Structure formats: C-alpha cells, structure tokens
Amino acid sequence: MRGVVMHAPGDVRVEDLPDPRIEAATDAVIRVSATCVCGSDLWPYRGTDKVDGPARMGHEYAGIVEEVGAEVSTLRPGQFVVGSFWASDNTCELCRAGYQSACVHRVPMGALGSQAQYLRVPLADGTLVATPEVPPADLVPDYLAASDVLGTGWFAAVAAQAGPGRTVAVVGDGAVGLLAVLAAKQLGAERIIAMSRHESRQRLAREFGATDVVTERGDDGIARIKDLTGGLGAHSVIEAVGTQESMTQAIRSARPGGDVGFVGVTHDVSIDGMEMFWSLVRLHGGPAPVRRFLPELMGLIGDRTINPGRVFDLDLPLEEAAEGYAAMDERRAIKTLLRP
Amino acid sequence: MRGVVMHAPGDVRVEDLPDPRIEAATDAVIRVSATCVCGSDLWPYRGTDKVDGPARMGHEYAGIVEEVGAEVSTLRPGQFVVGSFWASDNTCELCRAGYQSACVHRVPMGALGSQAQYLRVPLADGTLVATPEVPPADLVPDYLAASDVLGTGWFAAVAAQAGPGRTVAVVGDGAVGLLAVLAAKQLGAERIIAMSRHESRQRLAREFGATDVVTERGDDGIARIKDLTGGLGAHSVIEAVGTQESMTQAIRSARPGGDVGFVGVTHDVSIDGMEMFWSLVRLHGGPAPVRRFLPELMGLIGDRTINPGRVFDLDLPLEEAAEGYAAMDERRAIKTLLRP
C-alpha cells in the first residue's frame, strides 16, 4: 500500500509500505476513506520535535472495516467507522471515567500511521465507533474531523466548562480552536470570543458561532477580553496553541473561579505557581479523550447538526501529502484532508 | 491596645498600638476573642518573604462585635462573629460565584493585623458571619479555625472534588492538611490517605478521618499512593504545603482525570506544561474563598459535628506570641492559638 513517511523536518514522502494485517485477535484493519494532517504533525515537520529516522505519520482516520480479529465482536467488514488518535479498550477504570486517552492499554495511533491506504486499529471494539449505515460522501470530512480535531476542540470546551450563561474565549484560530468555538456553541455558551487576526479564520469562527472576534494578542488581547467581560475575564478560556505565550494569555484571560481548558501540546511551557495561585482558575487539559465524545459527535454529524469538516480547506490525494504539509506549515491552509 | 508586630525575620514583638476605629460606614470593630499564627506567617518569619520594616501580623480571628459603622445592617454589638482572612462585599459577581477571596472590593485582613486585642473589619456585612448566640468558651478555638485553616482545608477538598466513592490523598500534615482530611471525611470521601511522618500528626489525621497513612515522600510517596489505588493514582489530591516538591508529588499522585486542589502558597513553584498535559489532572486552588463555606462550617461547629480546633496544640496569651511563632517554626506545635 501507499503511505506517508517523514524522513526529516520538511521531508515528507509517500512510499510503498507493507499492507497492515491483523496481529492481535482484538485488531481490525480498515481501508482509510480519508485522513488528514494535524497541527501536531507540524512539530516534527518544523523540527521542534526530533525526527529519529523515517517515521510513519498520521493519527486521524475514518474508513471502512476490511477485516476484524477473532475476538472483535461489535464490528464487521463493510462498516464505516471512526476512531480516536488513541486506541483504547473502553472498559478499564480510566476509560469508564471518560479518560480513554489515558486507557491502561492505550496505543498511540500515530505509531501505526493513518496517512495511508490501510490502517491496523488495535483494541477495535473499544476504539472504533460505526455509523448506522455507510454515510454519503459529503459527510466523510465531517466524520474524519471527529477523529481528533473536533473531539479535541470539544474536550477543550468541556474542560473549560463552556455552557449556558458563560462567556468563552478561545486562544488559537487553528482547526482545534475553530472547532472549540463550534463546541462552545453546541454546549450552549452565551458569548464566544474568538481570538484571531486572520480574516478567513475569523469568518469560519463566526460561522461556527463566535459572537466576538479579538485581534489583539498578549497583554493587549487579555485587556480586550477583560473589557468585554466587565473587567473580570471570561468564565471559560480555551487554549488551543501550546506555547508559553498562549498559555499565559489563556490563564490571564480567565476570571477567578473560571476554567481554562488546554489542548495545545504544551511545548516548553512552564506555569508559574504564584500566577496559578492568585489566578484562582481551574486548569484542565491534555490529550483529549475523544472516544468519550465520539458517539455524540457522530450523531450530530449524521443528522447534519454540525459541519466540522468545514475546517478542511485543502483536499488532496494522499500522493500529494507533501504539499498538504507545506500548505499548513505556511498557513496557506487551516487543515489538509488527504484521500488515499 | 496590644498587638503583634514583626520587625524582622524571627523578631516578633507584642507592642502598644492605636485602638482601631470605624473608618468607613461599612466597617465593624471587633474585640478579638481568639486569634492564631498561620503557616503563611512563617514565610516572613523565616525570611522567605521579605519583611519591609515593622509589620502588623495576623489574619485569623473570632470575636465580639464592639461597634459597627452607620451602613452596617446585619450585625450589632455583642454578637460573636467569624470572618475570613479576606474582607469581601459578598455581593459582587465573583463573590456570588463563590470566589469571595477574589472579591472586586477585597481587603487582605493581614494588613489590618488580627493578632491584637481589637480589629477593624472592612465590609462587615459581607465579611462577618455571626453565631445565633455567643458560644460556650470551649467552642471558640473551633470557630477560630473556621476563619482560615478549616476553610482553606475545606476549599482544598472541594477543589479536589473529594466526595463519595473517591480516594483522597493529602500532601502536607500541617493544620491545613489535617483539616483537609476532616473536610474530605465530611464530604463523604471513601478513603483518605494522609501523607505524614510525624506520629502526633498521623494520630490527629486518623482522628479526623484518615483511613491510611503514607510516610514516604517524593517518588516513594507517589509509588505508595499508586500501590494503594490499583496503580492509577488517587481521584483527589490535596496539596497543602506550597513547595515544588509537594506540588510535583500532588500532581503525580493523582490519576488521569483526577483533581488536585492546592492551597499551599506556591513559593518558587513552576509547573511543567508537558507534565500537566500528560497528567490529565484538573488543577484548582489559590487563596481560599473561606466566606463561601463559613455558614455551613459554623453550623457544623455549633452542633459539635466537627472539632477543627483540635489543630491548636499550643494555647498562649497574646503577650507570648513570640514563643507561639517559635514553636510553630520549630515544628514543636502544629498551630498556636493566641488569646488577647
């Protein structure tokens, strides 16, 4: 089969790779209908994360079940499925508490590489959620979004306790930040402030439910959020970048007793204890337990309540993955969908 | 009147000071029945916090209303009252959300100095809670505890979501940590693990409701908590020290999706972003909004359901304040009560 391999920062190739096979009785193999490039794939692409030799890429996927292992009981070939970027058993104590991304048997799907024609999915019963029927083609990007970027934005909004009567500020206008806006809207937030200085992203944020746009950053951005919230700060702040600047901006934009939900991978971020102490904010985040939300999100997609696939503004054949990475790196695209 | 003044680290004196008077129409002046030395008073005593010239000390108090300003409507002279270490209006948006320690009009009581015979309390209607009747003398230490150390331990337990079905670990065996054990018990926690290597404190922890005692610290302490929780970590961890070591121990002792409530004043603490990300814990803490809990806590004290005054193991006349500080500094006493 064909699949994406990163050889070095900036060096992404599509190559012939061995077809994945059932290795454990709990595995499934799926034919990938659509996959995509994640903001986190840019960390190694830009050299921020080290690349140790050729690495399979991709952890987001939606596709058709091709084959299942002997112990897989809830899935059958031909079903359309979506899974999280963590394989999880969905039965351990942490999974049952809604933290499937910390499943005691978790497997990072990135190690298996979803940017390919086929994908082996461990713990298939726990990991994959099937639609009632194979969906129409136009919904595939929406379902794909549920695999990570929507689920991650949704988790951020839940972690930030977005909901009725709350003002939500979103730091970060990447796909996750934009879908956190969508999530906050669905969760009933009263006011949603998107922080963005890019016109096309501002437009999408408004389409997803943003009521206000703040273009300022850093201290000026914090001051604007305070201005918009009676001097107190937002009830809920979503951090969807993962830098020191964005984390600081998020914590300082929240009111005392407010909530910061963070899902940006916190590279070189350090949170000052005294700042955290005096802020009186509640901080929660990390790798999103997308599996917790998948059934609900796939339902909202199936009945066309939400259209998270709108974040894919570049749609390429898998063979053109290199251009897909470059476009995101150069911020010419919000998010690239790849079709194997 | 007589009151405590700190002149330099280790130099605590009781001196003649001007009697406080009503300054604003919303003030009250109380005759202090009992006050005490806080763990946080040891920061300047030990030179960790800078002492800029002579400073009035003390922010915990219970006493009898002596005089009220013209606008005070809910209190009258002769009532026995307790207040938090923050004066707060209890009407602003942050107070109504339960964060009176971030009240937009808050006044730190430490600046006024409760280790004295009389105390001016700003925003008296919002700050002070009166008992139905002047309580018997043996309950005064319990009420005094509600002013900070009980309320702070209680907030830590609430912030850590201590409750039914949850295992709670408490890092820190000072008065706040011990009262966090009591709070966790009252809040219905299933299992309460006190981390302490001091026999007298272990005994008090067990009396307050601890089901287990862990004497190990650092990595060994974390490993013991994991052992006791099926390898997962505690659902709730309370941090009641305020050092890098204790904060790290707290975060690492919690399971993914668990909660860390921190109330130790985080001196020179820095929380690594990646550690926070991968931990998937929820972190909440800061200066406790004691006023939120005062009515409930005073009720539990009045009907003798709880006896938080047990943390005072040294009871001295105000004139002997210097010895009260020294005993706590040298860990000869858990907490010193001072009687003006």
From TrEMBL, chains A, B:
<dbReference type="InterPro" id="IPR013149">
    <property type="entry name" value="ADH-like_C"/>
</dbReference>
<dbReference type="InterPro" id="IPR013154">
    <property type="entry name" value="ADH-like_N"/>
</dbReference>
<feature type="domain" description="Enoyl reductase (ER)">
    <location>
        <begin position="7"/>
        <end position="338"/>
    </location>
</feature>
<keyword id="KW-0479">Metal-binding</keyword>
<dbReference type="InterPro" id="IPR011032">
    <property type="entry name" value="GroES-like_sf"/>
</dbReference>
<dbReference type="InterPro" id="IPR020843">
    <property type="entry name" value="ER"/>
</dbReference>
<dbReference type="InterPro" id="IPR036291">
    <property type="entry name" value="NAD(P)-bd_dom_sf"/>
</dbReference>
<dbReference type="Pfam" id="PF08240">
    <property type="entry name" value="ADH_N"/>
</dbReference>
<keyword id="KW-0862">Zinc</keyword>
<protein>
    <submittedName>
        <fullName>Threonine dehydrogenase-like Zn-dependent dehydrogenase</fullName>
    </submittedName>
</protein>
<dbReference type="InterPro" id="IPR002328">
    <property type="entry name" value="ADH_Zn_CS"/>
</dbReference>
<comment type="similarity">
    <text>Belongs to the zinc-containing alcohol dehydrogenase family.</text>
</comment>
<dbReference type="Pfam" id="PF00107">
    <property type="entry name" value="ADH_zinc_N"/>
</dbReference>
<keyword id="KW-0560">Oxidoreductase</keyword>
